[in-house]
């Protein structure tokens, strides 16, 4: 497969089938970890791509990666590794965190802990970000 065909594959939504990350999947590996491997493969491909044009990088890598991230975050975790993969993706591998207090990742972490999260540590339902999230609920991008 030549480079152009490979890039077309990435942008066609077939990245999960193409990337070696899928071939490296472990037996019984969760869908979240499979998606995490695809996310890393796209990140690595973008980081090593010679283009500095944001539009081209978006088209070739980041739109697909964002779709993978959305899918990965939407799936309920089945183990600690799933939640760890979600946190690494949501925080860009620790480079930053722009997660608001009512992000689905935080909500899932709190739910997994059940009653172990003290009430004073829970986000107030009237926070600005919570209100924004509620306002955007159901709005399609």
Main β sheet profile: none
Cα-atom radius of gyration: 17 Å
Q: DSSP strand (E) fraction?
A: under 5%
Write down how many β-strands occur, each being a DSSP E stretch of 2 or more residues: 0
Distance between the termini: 33 Å
What low-confidence regions span 5 or more consecutive residues with pLDDT below 50? 1-23
Average pLDDT metric: 73
Percentage of helical residues? 55-70%
Shape: globular
Q: Please, how many domains?
A: 2
Protein name: Tat (Twin-arginine translocation) pathway signal sequence
Keywords: Signal
Organism: Pararhodobacter zhoushanensis
Task: Write the topology of this structure.
Layout: H1 3-11, H2 15-18, H3 20-23, H4 31-48, H5 54-74, H6 80-90, H7 104-113, H8 128-136
Description of the structure:
Keywords: Signal. This is Tat (Twin-arginine translocation) pathway signal sequence. With 141 residues, the chain is an all-alpha fold. It contains eight helices and no strands. The protein is globular. The protein folds into two domains: 96 residues, no CATH class; 43 residues, no CATH class.
Descriptive tags:
141 residues; Tat (Twin-arginine translocation) pathway signal sequence; disordered N terminus; mainly alpha; signal
